Amino acid sequence: MTINNHMSQEITASTLETVPGRRRLTKEVKIILAALATVIIVGLLGQVLRHWRREYTTLSAYLLSLPDYSYVTASINDQPFRLELVNTNTSRQQGLSDRSEIGSDGMLFVMPMLGTYPFWMPRMHFDLDIVWLAEDQIVDITPNVPAQPGVPLGQLPFYTNDQPCNLILELPAGRAALLGLQVGDKLVVQRDL
Question: Residue 185's pLDDT is what?
Answer without folding.
Answer: 97
